[in-house]
Amino acid sequence: MTRSKWIWLLWAVVLSSYVVPYTLLSDVSRWYGSFLFWTVAGLVIIALNVLITQGFKEHSDD
């Protein structure tokens, strides 16, 4: 996948972190329903950030 597709996927996960707890999980009366979703979403975002930035190289002007 190209870097731009990974970035779009990252934004989709961020958007779902707002939408899902207030729509699909709104009937869950316990806090851990949203907490579990946000934990998994956070781990996915960390993994996507690693994939997006793995090609970056440090630039030195020496």
Structural commentary:
69% of the residues lie in helices and 0% in strands. With 62 residues, it is an all-alpha fold. Helix 1 (3-22) runs antiparallel to helix 2. The termini are far apart.
Major pleated sheet: none
The sequence of SSEs as H and E is HH
List low-confidence stretches. none
User: What percent of residues are in strands?
Assistant: under 5%
Number of strands: 0
- Terminal CA distance reads 33 Å
Number of helices: 2
Share of helix, binned: 55-70%
Outline: elongated
Query: How large is the radius of gyration?
Result: 16 Å
Residue-averaged pLDDT: 85
Question: From the helix content, strand content and strand pairing, which structural class follows?
Answer: mainly alpha
Oligomerization: single chain
What is the structure about, briefly put?
The protein is mainly alpha-helical. It contains 2 helices and no strands.
Relevant terms:
62 residues, mainly alpha, 2 helices, 0% strand, elongated
Strand and helix layout:
Blueprint: H1 3-22, H2 31-53
Helix pairs in contact: 1-2
